[in-house]
Amino acid sequence: MAVDYAVIIIYLAGMLAMGWWGMRRAKSKSEFLVAGRRLGPGMYSGTMAAIVLGGASTIGGVGLGYQYGLSGAWMVLTIGLGLLALSVFFSARIARLKVYTVSEMLDLRYGGRAGIISGVVMWAYTLMLAVTSTIAYATIFDVLFDLNRTVAIILGGTIVVAYSTLGGMWSITLTDMVQFVVKTIGVLLLLLPIAVIKAGGFSEMKAKLPTEYFDPLGIGGETIFTYVLIYTFGMLIGQDIWQRVFTARSDKVARIGGTVAGTYCLVYAIAGAVIGTAAKVMYPTLPSADSAFATIVKDELPIGVRGLVLAAALAAVMSTSSGALIACATVANNDIWSRLRGAVSRGGGAAEGEHDEVKGNRVFILVMGVAVILIAIALNDVVEALTVAYNLLVGGLLVPILGGLLWRRGTAAGALAAVSVGGLAVIGLMAAYGILANEPVYYGLLASLAVYVIVSLATRPTDAAVLAAWRERLAGRGADTEEPVNEPATT
After folding, report:
1. pTM of the predicted model as reported, rounded to 2 decimal places
2. How many degrees, rounded to 5, is the angle at CA 96 between CA 94 and CA 98?
3. Any idea what the Cα angle at residue 319 is, between residues 317 and 322, rounded to 5°?
4. Is 118 exposed, middle or buried (0-12, 13-18, 19+ CB in 10 A)?
5. Whole-number Å distance between alpha carbons of 69 and 408
């Protein structure tokens, strides 16, 4: 394993070096949070694909292939479809808004009254997303170095927190681009063909496995529908995804680059399912489907290649973890703390001195990163944590966000009611039906939609001046400054 260890150590050292390099570039808030809004199509598509294809898509995607066959690709397919929908229908408008967070978009659309509640919901989502990604380090480092779970989480989490804190989005962009290349080589170009060959080819796989393993809908219609509801719609509204859209140099880059990334996700989804199916042929009685990836890598790949593929899995986890971490910190600082600080300032109790935006965001990444590591150590069930995150996101925020983009008659009161009722309904239904049940997101989303429409129609329409300013921003005008919309004055 010495060669494999060397590959991994070089990779991890490279991540830290890029964090240091990114620190030298991140001199302003725009540079630190959204890479100066300067990414071209190549880097944009690579980093976007990297953030959406994390440990769940790689290790979990192979596990679903092991359990269900080719239909196990549906989870990652729905992620790709969501990214395609975002890129084709919404990304250009989102990029032209020139904001930093989803809550700032809601403030701009509804007149500055929807931000803090939506910010709390989005913060909870990004926090749990970062936690689930951090937990995945335990699986990978256990295979690599036979490390204790807690030590593995601390090691992986510390590296991500370090380079994210140093350079912000520039560091994350550079590391994600490397991680995209490593994933492409490790999973698509190496592990996929090797797994199929070791399993005896597709003809041997079909001969040894039940026919349902090759049924495109074998995983079940209800499961596919739930994946669409959670992951496809989740891609449309997540702060971690929108923050990458904000890095695009132009709305054309956001649209074209995102379409390329979404298409790449579809290919990656099929590859993971095929690898899992091949693993089922070679190891028909594994105790856990999620161990299929680690088992096939450890037992079937040659020295050196094994290290590169494990680096690819590590890259997948790190890209999602770092993206979720900076999103969590951005929401915590810009949507929650800045508003509270502004309220204190208006009350005459703010501290003196000019607020350092880059330093402040760097501190928040560090604090959120430490919190994520501690929660990951204490939490055991990744699936439940991820389900809670997406249920809150979709149930609480999908309707007011898409309603704001698509329905002129939506009002601030309707948006606030939709966030509150949808979020509370999801929490209550998870308590009643169980966290992993489908009913919470179904009924929570319906409740949010009903309340949004009813309250919006029952209240006064949004002020014409607010809508006029909104249309100006959607058209790419009226955003001459890089400061976020409706940010409280600093002291």
Report:
1. 0.85
2. 90
3. 105
4. buried
5. 44
Q: Go through the chain and tell me how many residues it has.
A: 491
Tracing tokens 């292939």 back to the chain, one arrives at 65
The residue behind tokens 């935006």 is 357
Q: What per-residue confidence (pLDDT) applies to 349?
A: 44
Taking the C-alpha atoms of residue 33 and residue 170, their distance in angstroms, rounded to an integer, is 8
Could you tell me the pLDDT band of residue 348, with boundaries at 50, 70 and 90? very low
Q: Give the contacts of 235 (CB within 8 A, at least 6 positions apart).
A: 52, 79, 82, 83, 85, 86, 241
State residue 184's pLDDT score: 92
Contacts of 480 (CB under 8 A, 6+ apart): none
Question: Sign of the C-alpha dihedral, residues 233, 315, 267, 96?
Answer: positive
Q: What is the pLDDT of residues 393-452, one digit of tens each?
A: 899 899 999 999 999 999 999 999 999 999 999 999 999 999 888 889 999 999 999 999
Q: Which residue has the tokens 């990304």?
A: 91
Distance, in Å, from the CA atom of 88 to the CA atom of 256, rounded to the nearest integer, reads 8
461 to each of 302, 413, 453, 464, 474, how far by Cα in Å?
A: 65, 10, 12, 8, 19
Q: What is the DSSP letter of 476?
A: T
Task: Give the position of tokens 């593995």.
Answer: 152
For the record, the structure tokens of 341 come out as: 């600080």
Q: Measured between alpha carbons, how far is 366 from 369 in angstroms, rounded to an integer?
A: 5
Compute CA distances 111 → 108, 201, 393, 421, 465, whole Å. Answer: 6, 59, 22, 20, 9
**Tokens read off for 180:** 């995209």
CB neighbour class for 3 (10 Å; exposed up to 12, middle 13-18, buried from 19) = middle
Non-local CB neighbours of 23 within 8 Å, separated by 6+ positions: 166, 167, 171
Return the structure tokens found at 9.
């150590």
Q: Give the integer Cα–Cα distance in Å for 276 and 385.
A: 24
